[in-house]
Amino acid sequence: MTSEPPARADVLRYAAFTDHGRGGNPAGVVLDASSLAPSEMLDIAAQVGFSETAFLLPEVPGRSEVRYFSPQDEVAFCGHATIATAVALADRDGPGELHLTTAAGPVTVSTAVTEDGTTATLTSPPASSVAADESTIDLVLRALGWSRNDLDPTYPVHVANAGNDHPVVGVASLERLAAFDYDYDAMAALMAERGWTTVHAFWAESPVLFHARNAFPPGGVVEDPATGAAAAAFGGYLRALLGDDAPGRVTILQGHHMGSPSRLLVELDRDVSTVAVTGAGTRMPSSGRSGTDG
């Protein structure tokens, strides 16, 4: 007796958090995954090969469950795949508001058509941040190949969360960030042990403009060009660190050192625990049935 072949799915490919139409972080999007088992979602994500693919399980118009898979495993929440999904829906149905149920909690996304194209704003799960202990800092620095002299004392190392845990590591110079390199195996082992999703390294050009690079071994890649979940967690970090002095809006530039420039707008409201992250999305040239278009 032979088993049925795996279900096929229409897979769209979108770049999220593009910078004036360029760069961004690619994500797979399946707008109706109702017929797919989790094992099939994982298989499709592996075939697509992007750091994440989002699988939408529509409930009623404007409300859906969404599951996220890297090529290796399911993840609780993914910011750039959420932006990609919302933009794909806006391109199909027109802009509006979308209510998503994720493993990390409810997420609301609103879309709009602007001069920069279709944009989406996600409201993250509740964001929080705690100072990293000394041994954790030492382990992260060892994997990064950095010393404490490389750190910016204005921004102490924390582990921040807005659905997933992300260590946030501020460096003292753009030159150190530009030379970003790390021991992949050591970092992957440490992140697996601690349950971290990315390591968010950043340099503050100003109090409202940050350059970031994200180590992402759990996604099977060395570096992520735009990380919405980490951007939301970073917003929670700034709010926890600075309190009432936290800026209301900051911009994160990411992916430039990879040749995939990305722009993420992070908005903070000190009266709520969530963080809003906005980015533009662009449909990539090819899409089709899973496993048929690279």
Task: Give the helices and strands, then pairings.
Blueprint: E1 10-18, E2 25-30, H1 38-48, E3 53-60, E4 63-69, E5 74-75, H2 79-93, E6 97-102, E7 105-114, E8 117-123, E9 128-131, H3 134-144, E10 158-161, E11 165-170, H4 174-178, H5 184-194, E12 199-206, E13 209-215, E14 223-224, H6 228-242, E15 249-254, E16 262-268, E17 275-283, E18 288-289
Parallel strand pairs: 2-3, 4-6, 11-12, 13-15
Antiparallel strand pairs: 1-2, 1-17, 1-18, 3-4, 4-5, 6-7, 7-8, 8-17, 9-10, 10-11, 12-13, 13-14, 15-16, 16-17
Residue runs with pLDDT of under 50 for 5 or more positions: 1-6, 287-294
Largest sheet: 8 strands, mixed, barrel
Q: What is the number of helical segments per DSSP (H or I, 4+ residues)?
A: 6
The helix content is: 10-25%
